[in-house]
């Protein structure tokens, strides 16, 4: 008897999976009607977010984000460069976003995903608009040498809301950066502090002073509902997303809507901004806790 | 708003070009302007994995004035593609590709909005079935929160940020407009695409939306009348 029941369960699973694949929008519709999402969360809730800072030993700053299944790894590598000619009192940050083929069935090996430049540009825009890192912080000696920070974000699993996770990882990695201790000579040559040279002036290592910290919330638009933090499945079915970029205080930075089937009215825009403000408070807590934890680990290691 | 002009010309019968320029008239002369050339090829046959049995795929290639395309241009391609997919009836030509080539002739600010207007006009001229027209507009906000339409490149550094907004054109339909409303707003007030650069507060953005909608009505009207004029020109040539 039990065996028979088990068999019918299996058939139901197969039928459910078939329904999901053959009629994706009806499948989603059935859930939304009941006020839940296919992964079981309520309509207006983002997925659980885990942020760990300082996981890469060879990067000057690093962070790993898990937003549901979406996984992002960000690292900052510093290099000394001669001061840029057009802005002698500033350093540089180069942002790179990579989606290797292992992250999603939609990305093919050896081909660049069309999302890579889009997300890299959005991260760049968010960092410069909020002035999260004052580029003058990256100066070693004005007109002589400055830090070039390579910020690389890797997507390890693309399950929707990529920009949200990528931006959180990027911001946390930058917050984790500690400029190393160095020695600089009068003619602008830079050495590690442990290399003893004559006439070299030693600069203490320090953390970067941070301005406002940007965050993003992607919302998928259904004709009747707004679904924050969509999974890849929901993004694929609904085809319309709005990404609201704010800082942690809830100040709007940018609003990104790349086409899609549903038009956004003023009230939808306002609800998305309100959702982003709420999410900003959640993320701020996660962010500060992760940074504090990394700091206390550092001091423990030093002891 | 800068005075605008657009013209169509036909090369080789198959390739249809459309140029859309936004020109600034300062008392004496045409000074600076943004000129974008958009060409549409297709629907044409494609093979390989790109092919979709349910709808035509849209591909956009953005050619900068000089040099090779970087990530900035790739992002522009993505947004233009997603915007055009909103109006192209892709289900009518399955297993084909529609390619849109955007050539920047001169960029003096607002190139993205100009490119979308040009691409929309080129699609009409190429006879690709569309669900409607779009009107794109660039709004900039200065440090006092004033909204400026269609900023020039040299003004851009004085602004806190700018937004490129795309709205649907007002449909000319026999049905009443009220049935097309979304959230008690007329359909031409809905946002198809929105890209912002720099920091805009929520109030700034809503101001931009309001000003952008007013300007987009003008652009939509202009685009429609110039398309009609171009169409009449073609008919006259065919008749004679």
From TrEMBL, chain A:
Chief location category:
cytoplasm
A Pfam family cross-referenced in the UniProt record is RNase_PH_C
Q: Which GO terms describe its biological process?
A: exonucleolytic trimming to generate mature 3'-end of 5.8S rRNA from tricistronic rRNA transcript (SSU-rRNA, 5.8S rRNA, LSU-rRNA); nuclear mRNA surveillance; nuclear polyadenylation-dependent rRNA catabolic process; rRNA catabolic process; TRAMP-dependent tRNA surveillance pathway; U1 snRNA 3'-end processing; U4 snRNA 3'-end processing; U5 snRNA 3'-end processing
Q: Which InterPro entries does the entry link to?
A: ExoRNase_PH_dom1, ExoRNase_PH_dom2, ExoRNase_PH_dom2_sf, Exosome_comp_Rrp42_subfam, PNPase/RNase_PH_dom_sf, Ribosomal_Su5_D2-typ_SF, Rrp43
Tell me the compartments it is located in. Cytoplasm; Nucleus, Nucleolus
Where are the annotated coiled coils located? Answer: none
Protein name as it appears in the record: Ribosomal RNA-processing protein 43
Domain Exoribonuclease phosphorolytic as annotated: residue spans: 47-180, 213-277
The record, for SUPFAM superfamilies, names: Ribonuclease PH domain 2-like (SSF55666), Ribosomal protein S5 domain 2-like (SSF54211)
Upper lineage is:
Eukaryota, Viridiplantae, Streptophyta, Embryophyta, Tracheophyta
UniProtKB/TrEMBL annotation, chain B:
This entry's Gene Ontology molecular function terms read: RNA binding
Q: Which family does it belong to?
A: Belongs to the RNase PH family.
Q: Where in the cell is it found?
A: Nucleus
Q: Which GO terms describe its biological process?
A: nuclear mRNA surveillance; poly(A)-dependent snoRNA 3'-end processing; rRNA catabolic process; rRNA processing; U4 snRNA 3'-end processing
Record-linked InterPro entries: ExoRNase_PH_dom1 (IPR001247), ExoRNase_PH_dom2_sf (IPR036345), PNPase/RNase_PH_dom_sf (IPR027408), Ribosomal_Su5_D2-typ_SF (IPR020568), RNase_PH (IPR050080)
Record-annotated Exoribonuclease phosphorolytic domain positions: 32-129
Coiled-coil annotation: which residues? none
**Which protein are we looking at?**
Exoribonuclease phosphorolytic domain-containing protein
Tell me which domain of life the UniProt entry assigns to the organism this sequence originates from: Eukaryota
- Where does this protein come from, organism-wise? Adiantum capillus-veneris (Maidenhair fern)
Sorted alphabetically, the keyword list is: Exosome, Nucleus, rRNA processing
Q: What does UniProt give as GO cellular component?
A: cytoplasmic exosome (RNase complex); nuclear exosome (RNase complex); nucleolus
